[in-house]
Amino acid sequence: MGKITVETCEIEGLKVITPKVFGDARGYFMETYNKNDFVEAGIDVEFVQDNQSASKQGVLRGLHFQKNFPQDKLVRCINGEVFDVAVDLRKGSKTYGKWFGVRLSAENKKQFFIPKGFAHGFYVISEYAEFAYKCSDFYHPEDEGGLKWDDPDIGVEWPLVEGAELNLSERDTKWGGFKEF
């Protein structure tokens, strides 16, 4: 291994990955994904789709999941900074209904691995952010589910930027809470 550092989280299965960055006066180089390193770290997943989004400060996307075609995700922020959240939806898990959040930024270059069975969302802290993620299954729009971003039963502590207008899609304003899930 050696090209990545993997931190386990208090919720089993979630991992924060920091790649080794090689920098000099010209800039930097890093491997964002190497199957051998990830398998050695316990992440043996075949990714089939890459996605990228751009958002302004105050945008909150989530909390989303696929019902019948769940996805493992490897996410990172390639420009700006976001607060990324995963909520454990694995029935029978000792952390069922619990959440974990991590700041991902172009500066810290951290990545977040979220296995199947989690709802996922992020909030844009910087003025602008570009967010990239690898998925282990294809997106099926008719299969999407979601949870209310501010459900008190989940209790995510979003680091909302003072003075920034919260910006949600219409769809994200209509999800139900954890109890209804």
From TrEMBL:
Molecular function in Gene Ontology: dTDP-4-dehydrorhamnose 3,5-epimerase activity
Pfam families in alphabetical order: dTDP_sugar_isom
Gene Ontology CC annotations of this record: cytosol
Catalytic activity: dTDP-4-dehydro-6-deoxy-alpha-D-glucose = dTDP-4-dehydro-beta-L-rhamnose
EC numbers, comma separated: 5.1.3.13
BP GO terms, sorted: dTDP-rhamnose biosynthetic process; polysaccharide biosynthetic process
Transmembrane regions listed in the UniProt entry: none
Keyword Lipid biosynthesis (UniProt): no
Signal sequence bounds: none
Protein name as it appears in the record: dTDP-4-dehydrorhamnose 3,5-epimerase
Organism: Butyrivibrio hungatei
